[in-house]
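On clarity, I found the account of how folds are encoded harder to follow than it need be. An entry of this sort, consisting of the sequence and the corresponding backbone structure tokens, reads as follows:
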Amino acid sequence: MNNKKIRNVIKKQCPLVKKYEFCKNAVIYTDLDGRKFVAKENSQNNIINTYNYLNSRGFGYLPRLIYYDNDGYVYEYVNDSLTPKEQKVSDIIKMDSLLHNKTVYYKDISLDEVKEIYENLSMKITNVFAYYDDLITMIESKNYASPSQYLLLRNCSTIFSCLNFCKKELDRWYEIASNKNKKREVLLHNNLDPDHLVRGSDNILISWDYATRDLPIYDFVKLYKNNFNKYDFSELYKDYIKGFPLLEEEKILMFIILFIPRKIRFNSSELKNTIEVGRLFNYLFTTDKLFMENEAKNSKKQYHDIKE
């Protein structure tokens, strides 16, 4: 956050400030009349373009914009009511499906673009496979495995099952996508989080700084990866596709991205290492459950063989 830019924006909107509160990438300030506002740097996107576009599409769940220029913008602060985060994340998913409904359009896609997606994901799958194959070989060569390494050895078949699943599903995705000449794009919020839903007289979605246009799956992917162990994503996924049904190739691509394991990086703390390995397998088992409860029954052939 550029403090100088933020100060200039606040000074232009409110020359006399009674109180400042610093919160992550924003400044909450109170004027002499006791009214509260939020100032943010206009660094990632031109926020007014996002606002104008969303208003033109009939999506009005936005904070009231008070001031903007090239340095930053100010919107009206809304007092958030006490709401369980489980309720907030449910509302966010429904609001996200509405956002995608309001902003969806079809865009030409070339075979070269499909090939690029295929090759990038194929390279990532191969890279992760080689990483864990080498790591397992190294651990097996030792006379003694630490608790975290032993946990990884006991469950490594899950990692390789996921990667084999991704590889086969990627071929299936390519077969479908290469025969399409259009793809769907939406405006992605690209920063979904329960803390970004404010419940006042109406639901308001804040933090639009990273909004971008892309395939509709990425809002759910990002929310899931950051919160997979906190909420019931099986129900959240059902709510999302009820409001905005995904195409077959979109669902396949989403689960490929979700199933590619992240790389574990061991450090000097064995406790942290064990927690990280446990978190990895918790993520994979939770993702498997999400897939089995929502998409496996719709597949003619099942490649996935993770055993929880």
Residues 300-308 have pLDDT under 50 and may be disordered. The radius of gyration is 23 Å. The longest helix spans residues 147-177.
